[in-house]
Automatic annotation (TrEMBL):
This is Methyltransferase domain-containing protein. It comes from the Bacteria. One of its GO terms (molecular function) is methyltransferase activity. It comes from Dyella psychrodurans. InterPro entries: SAM-dependent_MTases_sf. The lineage of its organism: Bacteria, Pseudomonadati, Pseudomonadota, Gammaproteobacteria, Lysobacterales. The keyword Transferase applies. Keywords: Methyltransferase, Transferase. GO terms for biological process: methylation.
Length: 209
């Protein structure tokens, strides 16, 4: 289990993760109009939240891990002091144009139907949810026995879980899109095709209907 500081340092020094983060932040910021609010769902230590706030977006952060929250409070202390970043105990405690969930936050959920129903009460009509999730097709994981053992589950159901302490789940985009309906529709998937096998993360953009 990482402490908040260990996680923060790792994420800022990992070149691969920084590339993913930069791409995710750019996509989120390009989708937002000036001054629109964001909920950073599973905000970690506040790295993304700090960027959103710096670009003029009122930012709410929801983070269930106490270790992450503690370090977030330190990392974003100036933004919190001037209410550019606001910590919420529950997602429903805010109303925003966008929800972002970076670095596999949604992979910790076994089922997304109730989550998207809840987020539908958070996101304005026409707003969006942007999530980066672990690709179930990523060939870099083929060296692991759990990946090979779950190929049949992936074909049959479009989902599987990895036996571990955190019980990470992998989903095909269509499974997540089905769970998001009828409140959200899948508007964009990146990458597509062979990219789903070569990239660890896939980005899913859901539009509030």
């Amino acid at each position: 289990m990482h402490t908040g500081e260990q996680y923060h340092t790792f994420m800022l020094t990992s070149r691969r993760d920084q590339t993913v983060r930069d791409r995710f932040q750019k996509m989120a910021l390009n989708l937002l109009d000036e001054g629109e609010g964001v909920l950073d769902f599973g905000a970690g230590t506040g790295i993304d939240a700090k960027t959103y706030a710096a670009n003029g977006h009122p930012t709410f952060v929801y983070e269930p891990s106490a270790a992450m929250r503690d370090y977030l409070a330190e990392h974003c202390r100036d933004e919190i002091a001037r209410n550019a970043i606001v910590t919420v105990a529950l997602p429903l405690n805010c109303k925003v144009q966008a929800v972002t969930a970076n670095f596999a936050v949604l992979n910790h959920f076994a089922d997304h139907a109730s989550l998207f129903e809840e987020l539908s009460r958070v996101v304005h009509q026409g707003g969006f949810v942007l999530a980066s999730m672990l690709s179930p097709y990523y060939l870099g994981d083929a060296r692991y026995g759990w990946w090979r053992k779950n190929l049949l589950n992936l074909v049959r159901t479009g989902r599987y879980a990895i036996p571990s302490e955190s019980r990470i789940h992998r989903f095909t985009p269509r499974v997540v899109a089905r769970a998001a309906a009828p409140y959200f529709r899948l508007e964009r998937l990146y990458p597509r095709g062979v990219g789903l096998a070569t990239d660890l993360y896939m980005f899913l953009l859901f539009r509030r209907i």
